[in-house]
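Can anyone check this?
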Amino acid sequence: MLSNKLSFFAPSKLLQQNNSCSYIRNNDASRNRLQSFSQGGCEVADSVRSSLESEAYVGDEVVSETLPHIQTLRKFPKQELFAKVVMVRFDSTILLGEELDQSSQLVSEALFTIKYLHEAGAKLILASDWSSKINSTLVDAESVADILSSALQLKVVTVLCISSKISLDMEVFKKGDILLLENLSGFKEEVANCPKFAELLSSGVDIFVNDSFSQSHKILASTVGVARFCYACLAGFHFEESLCQLKKAAKLDKKPYVAIIGGGNLYNKAAALHYLASRCDGLFFVGMMSFQIMHALGLSVPSSLVEKDAHKAALDLIQLAHHKNINIIYPKDFWCINSHLPNHLEMFPAHFIPDGWVPVDLGTRSLEELNSLITKSKKIIWIGPVKFSMACKAITKESSSALGFNMVKNASVVWEFLKGRKLPGIMALDRALPFEIDWDAAYSDPTQPLVVDIGSGNGLFLLGMARKKKDFNFLGLEINAKLVRRCLDSVHLSGITNGYFIETNATSTFRSIVSSYPGQLILVSVQCPNPDFNKPDHRWRMMQRSLVEAVTYLLTYDGKVFLQSDIKEVVVRMKEQFLGYSKGKLALVQDHCDTKINQGAWLEENPFGVRSDWEQHVLDRGAPMYRLLLSKLATVK
């Protein structure tokens, strides 16, 4: 049937950048490895809607690699969440604080991630770390469960499977609406990212949702390790918006751009400060680092406020700023307190703070200068912590009407990003495409039935099919960028109008790409995949459950799946995965099988009459090809 039915063009402007802070699904594992909500690890003056509608694609190559487009819960098909076991790594500093303000966008995002999953019918497991430092009432897991139950208006029950080192019994879901694991801070395996501990954490889990952006700079078992054992790894609503805000902060879209910097430890943040100096028009230091700048400039600073090893780093920064004509600003005066006079405040010039006095807030001149700077700036990033209350009020008040204002609370994450380092918690998540596909530009008739070749290589199979069957459209999904460019050139030069190739890792992008296609999907082929990708312990092996489920779901009834390789074990494993993960919706096609020789429903000949380059190579050397054809059953719903 397919050999009679089956039948590419690639205009250069097919791909359109997605102009929101949410992205289409993808997983560009590349052999390595953002409904509308706001704020994540950032507090922003932008409204939620404008935040998600704003441009988020960063052109800077370094930023794009460090903050890749990731798969998000908002873009994941909601129907696929039903009955799935989903583990959410939530941020305890947001949901378990002394006062939980549910009107806060920050809190509402974090709560919505959990509520959204519960409403979708997922079986929820919550995991996090906590301590009495964030809330004195956090005595044990039961007290945390009570707080979460009250906030979510759902019954949260605790389970003790981690300490007992036993896999989670699914029957326990009958005890409550949501399960809560033990305090992860009590396990050294968490910070060590122990593989066995991560496997225990994710036991029985289908989908992992990371909603703890504040931990993105750490390599933890609950944020990085578990990703290896779950077939889909997504960013929650809080995490998504946090990453969006960080990308916005990195963009050079408005000038003048000023950074307000709090905190200390200048020496370890030198690389990040150099990055800021290369992008901003001014750096205003309002924390401990300001004293290191003053000390490097030769001003008098109390020895107790001078950081070890910071002098040279501060000098280097000052020289860089001078070379780039960037203003470095520091406070001119401080309100100070003396331990012997705890109720007495006195203002001193920044360069003349007497011994025994400690700065507790910015002085009048400093606040005036800060206010003036903010009102003149078009874009502001505030990297905390800023513990001076008057400074905080001044910045918040003057910046409240500034659409380009970002207050970053998760400073540790931001500093690591500014150093040019990849954030493990982000890199562990599935990737997403940074563009949308214009099918009208891809094909002369985008309503024609679609054939998709996963791992299309140099495209000889699809190009041959496109020439042979012009009443079908053909799409090649290939991870190798050079091969994709070569295929697109061939399509263009040959004038083919019913085909296209996309550089992507189809393992996780298949659903998002094909689901937007206006026609029916009638055939999916997987030919001669790299055997290494099919090792059971390979996190990024091609034939994962998420891909099989996506293919099965999107394939039209009576549509086909063609599997082929010169390595028998590879085809057998792919067959088992398709038959197993499709849950009875796919069946072997027995017609035209050489059962005498192969005894396993192998196809004796290629049913399409068009060979791939590797297939031809194998046959030329007299070696066998192992082929299977699966069909989606029309009677299964």
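Reply from J.R.: I decoded it. The two ends are 22 Å apart (CA to CA).
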